[in-house]
Amino acid sequence: MYIKKLNNNESIVVSIPLTTQTEKTRIKRRSMLNQYGLPVATRSENITQDCYVEWQIGYDAVVNDISKLERTTLPMIRFEGANGKEKALYELSEYVYYFLKWEIIKEEELIDIGQKLININEENLFESESMLAIKRSHFIEKEFNETKFLYAKIEYPILVHKFDSYEIITEIVIKEKQYAIGVQPMLYLCFPVTQLKSNISLLGRTADKKEEAEFIIDKNNYKILLKLIYLFGMLSVNHRKDILSIIDVCLVNK
Predict the structure, then answer these.
(1) Where are the alpha helices (H) located in the chain, listed in sequence order?
(2) What mean pLDDT value characterizes the chain?
(3) Quick one: average pLDDT of 231-249?
(4) What is the DSSP string of 107-121?
């Protein structure tokens, strides 16, 4: 995702792709919150009222990732990540930076979030919280198609946070790390397609090739940004360190 337009110190227009499935956004469909969202092939399926955007929103760009660095409007405002890599502000941290600069977000709000995160005990971060452990059942013997197997179930915890007075939620899913030992909390911002702006209504039609729509962040919904950085900081030790560094660099460079 990238910032399409900055509007007179008042709002940010973010471009949301409707057809590119390799991006960090997907159009999905479900009629109830507790259902598993199914991807929508928007080039061949009509976009309907029960469609929503699932956005694995990021907050940084590693400076040697040229493709991502080219998307940020703030490539020179950098910090050292928890993994020791040099990073630039990107997506969530970009939005926070601008709203702080425009004095819509107050310094005290960011400082308060930072202090709250510092005060969270390490064992209460999501990667360590015992109540959020991945559960695995014991193996039992099962036979499928005349072949014997050992069968077990794995349950992944999911947390949903609803934003007040908005049809916008955050989903946090706890999964195993792909290339290392341990768990990896993953955060998704989800909102109905009706929150998107387009020259032609999206409902009841398929998307055009490489079509994009707009998600607008302004003084009416900017507090979602504050909650998101707080939630990110709760995920793990490394996430918290990154978010605290982002808060510091935003305050210094405003």
Answers:
(1) 66-69, 92-101, 107-118, 223-235, 237-253
(2) 92
(3) 97
(4) HHHHHHHHHHHHTS-
Q: What are phi and psi of 123, to 5 degrees?
A: -70, -10
What local confidence, expressed as pLDDT, does residue 180 receive? 65
Cα four-point dihedral sign 237, 118, 129, 190: negative
User: CA nearest 45: which of 26, 25, 66, 32?
Assistant: 26
How does DSSP classify residue 174? E
H helices of 83-175, in order, are: 92-101, 107-118
The two tokens of residue 26 are 């997907």
Q: Which pLDDT tens digit goes with each residue over 21-61?
A: 666 899 999 877 777 788 999 999 999 999 999 999 999 99
Report pTM. 0.91
Instruction: From 90, 95, 88, 89, select the one nearest 13 (Cα to Cα).
Output: 95
Residue 83's contacts (CB-CB under 8 Å, 6 or more residues apart) are 238
Average pLDDT of the residues in 151-178: 88
Res 5: pLDDT: 93
Domain boundaries, the chain: 2-122+157-253
Shortest CA distance to 206 belongs to which of 49, 48, 50? 48
Which of 193, 195, 191 minimizes the C-alpha distance to 171? 191
3-state secondary structure of 232: helix
Q: Measured between alpha carbons, how far is residue 206 from residues 43, 170, 202 in Å?
A: 5, 26, 8
